[in-house]
Write a structure and sequence with these properties.
The chain is an alpha/beta fold. It is 55% helix and 10% strand. It contains 14 helices and 8 strands. The strands form 2 sheets. The protein has a 6-stranded mixed sheet. Helix 2 links the parallel strand 5 and strand 6. The chain is globular and about 50 Å long.
Length: 263
């Protein structure tokens, strides 16, 4: 089972987590927690639906400040926008460059670097989610933002809605007591929603881009292996990563479950 896709004209990976069921038989309340790709291409119809149909109240943008500047979200009146960059600074020339370019340029950057280098780059990003000081601070901020309840939807996103936003979703579901199998299935569902995007790019750029496009728009179980290895190496287990790395307390976890879970 994976989260329900919300069909938008200007996004490709917007989903409501409400249909997922945790270990205790609780599910997330309807129209409370959405994950998504960026909102910089949403249409007037999308804006109308997000505001009036889904009651969007809060958007948490996990992209870098430079990405936000280059491709700003379309703003909807009455919605709070919070910048919470997961990777505000990235070590190394390639990573600094990647953080500052558009999606189109990023495709070209990884294509030029080759598939092996691009795969290593993505795995390094997932390791950084666990080990990087800025990443830990950003994800802790995200959880504490969610602890301030609003009467409507909170949506978090990055660029493609799969890596930074994908890990945010993994973390939130873990805190809400979902089993690992459900978390993995929801994470991998991104591949379903980007198939058409990859096919469209192949028609435009050629079949020789396919592997790189899957690296950019797809997700892999290997990335989750990197997460688990980094957690084990640095904290021993997820509970200690949460309590020591993110400094999230059991009281905060209980409050998060109280706000967002229902039978």
């Amino acid at each position: 089972m994976f989260s329900e896709r919300i069909f938008m004209q200007g996004t490709r990976n917007t989903r409501d987590l409400a249909n997922l069921v945790n270990r205790d038989g609780f599910h997330i309340k309807k129209e409370k927690l959405f994950r998504s790709d960026a909102l910089n291409h949403i249409t007037l119809q999308d804006q109308e639906e997000l505001k009036n149909k889904y009651h969007l109240k809060r958007v948490i943008d996990l992209r870098t400040f430079k990405q936000i500047e280059n491709e700003p979200n379309v703003r909807i009146s009455g919605v709070e926008y919070i910048a919470d960059p997961v990777l505000p600074t990235l070590e190394g020339e390639e990573k600094n460059h990647a953080a500052n370019v558009t999606e189109e340029d990023f495709i070209e950057l990884l294509f030029q670097n080759g598939l092996e280098s691009s795969g290593k780059y993505m795995m390094k990003i997932y390791e950084m989610f666990i080990t990087c000081k800025e990443c830990k601070e950003a994800y802790a901020r995200l959880i504490r933002i969610l602890l301030k309840e609003v009467s409507g939807v909170t949506l978090w996103h990055c660029s493609a809605g799969k890596d930074r936003a994908g890990f945010a979703t993994i973390l939130i579901l873990y805190l809400l007591n979902f089993d690992w199998e459900t978390i993995v299935e929801d994470y991998l569902a991104t591949n379903r929603f980007y198939m058409m995007t990859i096919e469209d790019y192949k028609k435009e750029k050629g079949n020789h881009y396919e592997d790189i496009l899957w690296c950019i728009y797809g997700v892999r179980r290997e990335y989750l292996d990197v997460l688990n290895q980094a957690v084990e190496a640095n904290y021993g287990d997820w509970e200690h990563y949460i309590s020591k790395g993110l400094k999230i307390t059991q009281e905060e976890i209980s409050k998060l479950r109280e706000i967002y879970l229902t039978k």
